[in-house]
Amino acid sequence: MPAVSSSDKVLSYEKVAESVKRAQYAVRGEIYLAASERIKKGEKVIFTNVGNPHGLGQKPLTFPRQVMALLTAPFLLDDPRTATMFPADAITRAKTYLANIKGGVGAYSDSVGNPYIRDEVAQFIQARDGHAADPERIFLTNGASEAVRTLLRTLIRGHMDGVMVPVPQYPLYSASIALYDGCFVGYELDESTGWGLDLVKTKASLDAARARGLCVRGLVFINPGNPTGQCLSRADVEALVRFCFDNRLVLMADEVYQENVYRSRHPFTSAKKVMCELGEPYTSGLELVSFHTVSKGVYGECGLRGGYMEMCNFDPRTVEEIYKICSINLSPNVPGQVAVGLMCNPPRRGDPSFDSFMAEKAELLASLKRRARLLTDAFNSLEGVSCQETEGALYSFPQITLPPAAVAAARAAGKAPDVFYCLALLSETGLSTVPGSGFGQAEGTFHFRTTILPAEADMGEVVELFKRFHKGFVQRYSGPVAKL
Q: Which parts of the sequence belong to the Aminotransferase class I/classII large domain (predicted)?
């Protein structure tokens, strides 16, 4: 029997769903793949392309891992030596979880998560905002990304349904909207004001989309911002709440970096808190879903894939449909759920682990603040580079001015200029970043995103590598544009 040719395969590339082909995810795109090839060759790579704290050397917080160690090896609770190796509150917490998680961490849970942990999340939200949260409207998920995709899958009915997303944006949104055959409607942030919100442009974007016949159904905002690192003021959040209510949009509040705030100018304020404090008709009329995760903050537990979403003011029948979607996956992973519970319900004052836990968190946040400052200052010290303040999150998003010869060389190579720049940066230094075109950027501008996550002891080397590369790159292409 003759071999089946590639084009005759049932799932040849030509027969792959068009929505899958349209979906692009730059964070693990061309630069990441090139970096992976370097690793295979034994060459050094510093992965600053993704917010993966433990992957860049951050140590896990002690207390959560102590509890999880006991949960994953519950026989340790019967060992008399455990009392000398683990603090009493970690032992107590592990026993409490085991009493409330039928079958332990190796068993399926409810499709929307363990009720005890959902109650911990509800109490966390109430303590944060001063307003009650309903555990029945809290869904635990495999990371916040799964929650986002679940909501978008429910919101988008077809190619004429649009979702508004800030530009620059985290490509989870553009990729998922494409995958579900929806329409991406960007609203541009203003780089000149520190990536601030411009409601005039936002409204113009909405009006233009609706004028094209799109049914715009939702709006996403990311606070603190990814990739931009800005923190929205309370007034900005209030403006978005009003905007979504007035224009009949579901508000999707991506608040996964709420603990990563490095300046006091704009402390984090949740959309839920603002909605409740505005009173009626917003309190009962705005359809709001907010997302959080244990992958960010100071926990950085990306591999555990723990997250949640809270839904406010949704039709109960819609909630049942979302429950059905979650049921198709049986249940979120239980260790990730526990990690979320520990994030929301950490040691309290008076507990044996409280002082050491708070000290670990404080040092991590202080270090992130110093690294953000160092990286911002380094970028702004270079000719042709400007970088807005990293007020929060885990990233810097500098703008680079590329010489005309570099732009021409990129075009000749069939690459976007910022991709060309990032590939050269990777080749010469081993620094893996993400081109700004993967997030969206104003026409005629070029950016890249890098994390502030390399270890503080290594950050000086990272800065020097970048400085030497950028100066050499600009010098190399500072001559006249060659005729092509």
A: 89-462
> What's the Cα-to-Cα distance from 464 to each of 1, 226, 470, rounded to whole Å?
60, 24, 10
220 in helix, strand or coil? strand
H or E element at residue 385: strand 385-386
Residues 336 and 364 in one domain: no
Span 124-175, pLDDT tens digits: 999 999 999 999 999 999 999 999 999 999 999 999 999 999 999 999 999 9
Identify the three-state secondary structure at position 169. coil
C-alpha 144/C-alpha 289 separation (Å) is: 12
CATH of the domain at 292: 3.40.640.10
pLDDT digits (tens, 9 = 90+) for 324-333: 999 998 899 9
pLDDT of residue 482: 39
180 in Cβ contact with 152 (< 8 Å) = yes
Q: Do 264 and 385 sit in the same domain of this protein? A: no
| AA letter at 284 | S
Contact 258, 270 (CB under 8 A): yes
205 and 292 share one domain: yes
The number of distinct structural domains making up the chain is 2
Are the CB atoms for 142 and 336 separated by under 8 Å? yes
Helix (H, G, I), strand (E, B) or coil at 484: coil
Q: Which residue among 344, 366, 392 closes a domain? A: 344
Query: Which amino acid does the sequence have at 88?
Result: A
DSSP secondary structure string for all residues of 238-277: HHHHHHHHHTT-EEEEE-TTTT-B--SSS----HHHHHHH
Q: Which residues contact 478 (CB under 8 A, 6 or more apart)?
A: 403, 405
Q: Could you give the 3-state DSSP secondary structure of residue 85? A: helix
**Which residue range(s) make up the domain with 109?**
99-344
Say whether both 217 and 317 belong to one domain. Answer: yes
Q: Are residues 258 and 367 in the same domain?
A: no
pTM given for the model: 0.92
E strands within 296-371? Answer: 307-312
Q: Do 429 and 465 form a contact (C-beta atoms < 8 A)? A: yes
113 shares its domain with 38: no
Task: Report the range of poorest mean pLDDT among 1-10, 217-226, 287-296, 372-381.
Answer: 1-10
